[in-house]
Amino acid sequence: MASIEASNPNRALTDTRFSDLKPPLSEPVLEALTQSGFEFCTPVQAATIPLLCSYKDVAVDAATGSGKTLAFVVPLVEILRRFTSPKPHQVMGIVVSPTRELSSQIFHVAEPFISTLANVKPMLLVGGTEVKADTRKIEEEGANLLIGTPGRLYDIMERMDILDFRNLEILILDEADRLLDMGFQKQITSVISCLPKLRRTGLFSATQTEAVEELSKAGLRNPVRVEVRSETKSLNDSSSSQQSASSKTPSSLHIEYLECEADRKPAQLVDLLIKNKTQKIIIYFMTCACVDYWGVVLPHLAALKGLSIISLHGKMKQTAREKALALFTSLSSGILLCTDVAARGLDIPGVDCIVQFDPPQDPNVFIHRVGRTARMGRQGSAIVFLLPKEEAYVEFLRIRRVPLEERKCSDEAPDIVPQ
Ligand SMILES: Nc1ncnc2c1ncn2[C@@H]1O[C@H](COP(=O)(O)OP(=O)(O)OP(=O)(O)O)[C@@H](O)[C@H]1O
């Protein structure tokens, strides 16, 4: 596999304008970029867009919030532009991502660019809605670009012979490692087996695993690997796993941990929230039940009165999930209580702080959770609660400990014991 390092990896933006890229982007895409306020490329965009546009497969590994979405949306639209007037059920491109929320976000980021293509009909395909509504819509209106989650995409491909994939030009697998570790390997392999071999494929993630490496070997042809690392943080460590963890979090992100016994965690959490009432905070819990529990408890605390406290997890109805995310996105301050359904890819503006009440089992998930703040060069902070026995995380992440004294509970913080 060829490998290149993108220039200027320590800055949010490069000096390269989208209008400088070679091969040149089309006028309508440049116009859509300008209208969205994008003039200069991020490092991952400057490296990836020219490769995909010149028919190279790419395996992209870049920090959270570094602009990976446009890095595949722009070339995807440029490639589709070369094939004017596909038939209504001719599918020219597919974008697969692990969650409904992320697929929907990609769809909306892509919309202004897709609308520059006169005859390309995009379709968002995610679970949580009647599959028949999707099949009916596809039958009636056609679909040339499918953006969605692997389960629903696979379902639609199984049911709908009317869809023709023989001329598919481009496949994008976003958050590729997550797609695989959610158990979608079979669906992804089945989707790929229906597609022509002569296509472009892009694998994107902030974290790569061996499974992604395998998928890359099976699904990509001579891919170029694009790696964009953030600057190495304060500590000088030689362990490769530690280097990879910290180089995948944005350099503008300050991460620390709080070590405390299990029975002190609830009071520490409440104390932290009381002290940061004006902030926009996301709190990650291990289970949907924990989110529900805290969603009931926190609004009852007098000390947190008036704060917007919103719950989001995978067992909520799809409409409630969408409402919760839209509400939290619109707030300038407030608290989102969630599971890892909100760990990947979500681009929520203005998040100040990420709290991990329960650390994740997989350290890669840590990187994605904290990546919901400090996006595109902005400042952000993250704190993870660790039990004394969970110290292994500290070595992996090379993060600073907050002494308990610094976070001493205020008198207002009640002692709460989760059920
Ligand atoms: N060239 C650019 N100039 C200015 N802002 C940009 C540019 N490219 C992307 N952005 C903005 O940066 C933010 C992060 O982009 P994006 O969501 O694509 O990151 P990501 O790398 O996919 O993150 P994650 O790994 O968390 O999925 C978005 O708000 C996007 O609008």
From TrEMBL:
It comes from the Eukaryota. The keyword 4Fe-4S does not apply. Coiled coil: none annotated. A motif (Q motif) lies at residues 18-46. It is an enzyme of class 3 (hydrolase). InterPro entries: DEAD/DEAH_box_helicase_dom, Helicase_ATP-bd, Helicase_C-like, P-loop_NTPase, RNA-helicase_DEAD-box_CS, RNA_helicase_DEAD_Q_motif. Residues 18-46 form the DEAD-box RNA helicase Q domain. Residues 235-250 have a biased composition (Low complexity). Transmembrane segments: none annotated. It holds the Pfam family Helicase_C. Residues 268-419 form the Helicase C-terminal domain. Keywords: ATP-binding, Helicase, Hydrolase, Nucleotide-binding, RNA-binding. Its EC number is 3.6.4.13. Belongs to the DEAD box helicase family. DDX55/SPB4 subfamily. This is ATP-dependent RNA helicase.
